[in-house]
Amino acid sequence: MSVADAPAIEVAAAAPVQAIDGQEGDPVEPYFWEEGGNPNVDWWAKVRHSLHFGGVKAVAGAEAVGEVVANTLGLNDSKYQYVIDALEADEIREKREQRDEEDRRQMALEEEAAKARERREQQDGEVKQDSGAIELGDTRLSLPDSSGETALPEGSTA
Q: Which intervals of the chain are annotated as region Disordered (predicted)?
């Protein structure tokens, strides 16, 4: 029997593989219970689909738990993260101190302005009270009032 006379043997192609979520080996066909899946598959295919689905979910859950644990323990931080954190805390504290110092300066300026305003008001009040008199040494002279009469110096009689 020659090679040419031998019956052709069909080789069943392996099921194609697709990458789902970056994992190779996922079946191309949908699970038998999903829409578009074949519900009339043999029991071995049902077991294979169920195991695959359960395995994918277990690995995804373990990965999520591992990420939480690594973040909690600080395993994802850089080796000298504590130095970076300390520098950031120092910068925040310096900014807060600068802001507080600026606030103190502003309040001091406002207090000075209020005191100066009070002094001016007191001086204006004294000037208004004394606007009708002039002091020359020990003598106090009154200026003419609106009637045109001039008051005599204090202690003198006319």
A: 93-158
